[in-house]
Design brief:
The radius of gyration is 19 Å and the shape is globular. Helix content is 19%, strand content 33%. It has a single domain, classed as Dihydrofolate Reductase, subunit A (3-Layer(aba) Sandwich), CATH 3.40.430. The strands form 3 sheets. It has an 8-stranded mixed beta sheet, sandwiched between helices. It has a two-stranded antiparallel sheet with strand order 1-2. A two-stranded antiparallel ribbon has the order 4-10. With 203 residues, it is of the alpha/beta class.
Length: 203
Amino acid sequence: MARGQAARYRFESRGDGRSPVCYHEKMTTGHIFIATSLDGYVARRDGELDWLMKQKTDGEEHGFAALMEAVDGLVMGRGSFQNVLSFGDWPYIKPVVIMSKSLTPEDIPDHLRDKVRLSSQEPEALMQALDEEGWKKAYVDGGKLVQSFIRAGLVSDITLTRIPILIGEGLPLFGSINQDIDLEHVSTESFASGLVTSKYRII
């Protein structure tokens, strides 16, 4: 089985006394849509995104709306959740799962209790649970979370937007892996703002 194609197995009776048929089915797949500085960081060391938020991208469509239409919900880490909270209005309509072993239900604002839930599960166990709920695709967000989902082979594709800025140090997008992961380049698009968005499929 290729990376990015987490699977489950379904057994159905033949009805004639022989062994049941085993069907291979894909589990919920993870999809990454993330921006980095040109030197590969997703945030400053303190989590700040000022370098990203100052980019002038008015009128540009980088594919985020299409992604949100395609996924069943979001899985994000604690740091990403706290950053989104600082933006003011909650930007997501679809359900959000926060993966954290430190947050408690009291850390979820009252107005988000019906939109956000916590999980302390490991990535594969969470994806199995989401699959049982009917999720087909999950948007995975957050530097360390992205790394753990990639290592677990739960990511189907990566859409990476490179921002034309060097910040020198920060939180890197990618981390250590147990083996090389081959990628297939799907597309690249550049924008007047200087942003460059590339999509890769994990093979």
